[in-house]
Amino acid sequence: MLNELWQNVTLENYNNFIPMTGKITKVPVRYNKFFKGDVELWFKTFALRAQNMINSYLNYPFSKLKFETFKDPLLKKICINMVFITIEHWTFNRIPIKFFTSANMSVGDINYSSQNDPIITWQGLLPTYAKSLANLTTLKKIFRTFQEEGIDLTMIDLEAYYTQLEVDALLEKEKTERIENDDKLDKKKLIIYQMKQKKI
Prior knowledge:
The protein is mainly alpha-helical. The protein has helices at 11-16, 32-35, 39-57, 61-64, 73-93, 130-143, 159-199; strands spanning 103-107, 110-114.
């Protein structure tokens, strides 16, 4: 279990994330009796729980490697965004995002195991957050091949993952530019048409 917040996981950054359900400036009413108005403590408690859920979902990489070990800013951003999304969803929708993971446990001579496909419940999740969730699921597919023991950073190849994200971003940018250019062209055609009508 992680007991320290990842770098940049702060209440201030959460509020700057512009949560769609509003910034948190005080402890939500239903939690106030437990936190006595200490909003920083409330946020840290929920953020740590969210971090641990994400950590487990990603096949324990952050239990063996510090968050700062990953130099890739995009990977960190995906995880931090999911912490914020999880807190927002949890707090305002009253439904936690459920991360399904694999687990093994031994009690005496008896071994117990549970396997779940790497899926997440989407109930009540805002559609605008689907992309961050999809990015986390892609990370899950990359990390799932690594066991709890012996994770080697040099073996984790994120090249294909980033290439996919970069291509998606470029396609989205081109699509947006085309729409904007089409809008400009339509406006230009409209102006020309209006000028011709005035001459007539």
